[in-house]
Specification:
Layout lengths: L1 E12 L2 E12 L3 E5 L6 H8 L7 E6 L2 E2 L4 H7 E4 L11 H11 L4 H14 L15 H13 L5 E5 L7 H16 L3 E6 L11 E6 L2 E7 H9 L1 E8 L4 H9 L3 E7 L2 E7 L2 H13 L4 E6 L4 H11 L2
Parallel strand pairs: 3-8, 3-9, 6-7, 7-8
Antiparallel strand pairs: 1-2, 1-4, 4-5, 9-10, 11-13, 11-14, 12-13
Helix pairs in contact: 3-4, 3-5, 5-6, 7-10
This protein binds adenosine-5'-triphosphate (ATP).
Adenosine-5'-triphosphate binds next to strand 2 and helix 1.
Length: 309
């Protein structure tokens, strides 16, 4: 079910069109990576969804409500983390999260437990009594996520949360984002660095000069761009016979064999995939694993930019 549905949403700043009639649909449980260079319009789009900017034109529904009419409801149920934010530096981390829990109307009796839960979720339980001003930038970004988590929003909007972080802090943040994704939370996360999003986005939207140029499920986009699927087949024993059989199957090429795992590239869709599997099994091959290889976002992006004029 769509949790966000935008139709031709647009934002002009004087003569500049920052977001140019963007239509986008995000289903519950999707993790959408919004990728694009600086100035593409990612922040402007997220700020509109976060109800901080009013669209010049177009319509959007978030969590089932109209973006401009029901913005108070949307603010309650959508967690927006802007690219820059300030926290009260002379509060402790525990006090800071309590403050946000109160502001979001978490029932008083539930606040203490909720704050503890969030502290351990963002892996900062040992910093509970540290002042915000003593936390590193990486920790502050995790506190940013924490202030959204205290009210358990239905949709997370994260604007370049990893920007300016050192490698270790990026990995720590990434672990938390992976947790969100694994728990089936709905997230839109922007970045101009692809590797930041690799591995946990189910969907991707590529934005450039105010427009979404390409969007969809990561694997679908790969198929669209390359016209093929990559499959890994593991068999019991010597793979030679299986390799020979795969080679005889139409529209398939074997791209590599590593011990008992055969990497295959094939043109087509799920139907052809099922056909190849049946072909092997009926041919007496003991198939241990047969899976479409998950697309690496970076390979995909290279392919897209490589094919660009
Ligand atoms: N309040 C504003 N007034 C005027 N122009 C603006 C305003 N906010 C953004 N812009 C312009 O809109 C365009 C899109 O900016 P936006 O910040 O949305 O891009 P972005 O993809 O988020 O880039 P970045 O990664 O640099 O944040 C840019 O040309 C920017 O200068």
């Amino acid at each position: 079910m769509a949790i966000l549905e935008a139709q031709e949403i647009r934002k002009e700043f004087g003569p500049l069109v920052a977001v140019n009639d963007v239509s986008l649909s995000v289903d519950e449980g999707d993790v959408l990576g919004l990728i694009g260079p600086n100035g593409a319009g990612k922040s402007t789009l997220l700020r509109m969804f976060g109800t901080l900017l009013r669209p010049t034109a177009g319509r959007a529904q978030l969590v089932g409500r109209d973006l401009t009419k029901d913005y108070l409801h949307i603010r309650k149920h959508v967690g927006f983390l802007p690219d820059f934010f300030n926290l009260y530096s002379d509060l402790t981390l525990g006090e800071c999260l309590r403050f946000f829990a109160e502001a979001y109307g978490v029932p008083r009796s539930a606040i203490a437990a909720r704050v503890e839960e969030v502290l351990s979720y963002i892996e900062l339980a040992d910093k509970r009594d540290s002042f915000i001003r003593h936390l590193s930038r990486g920790m502050v970004q995790r506190v940013g996520l924490g202030m959204l988590l205290v009210h358990d929003p239905q949709l997370f909007l994260l604007d370049e949360p990893a920007s300016g972080l050192d490698p270790k802090a990026r990995i720590q943040l990434r672990n938390i984002l992976r947790k969100l994704s694994a728990e089936g939370k709905t997230v839109i996360i922007s970045s101009h660095i692809l590797t930041e999003l690799s591995g946990f986005c189910s969907h991707v939207a590529i934005m450039n000069r105010g427009r979404i140029e390409l969007s969809g499920a990561v694997d679908e986009i790969r198929r669209k761009v390359t016209g093929s699927m990559q499959v890994e087949v593991s068999v019991l024993g010597d793979p030679e016979q299986a390799v020979a059989m795969i080679r005889r199957f139409p529209l398939v090429s074997v791209v590599g064999v590593d011990r008992a795992t055969i990497s295959v590239e094939m043109v087509g869709g799920p139907q052809e995939l099922a056909g190849l599997n049946a072909h092997l099994v009926h041919g007496g091959i003991e198939v241990v694993r047969f899976a479409e290889r998950k697309t690496d976002l970076e390979d995909l992006f290279m392919k897209i930019s490589g094919d660009a004029p």
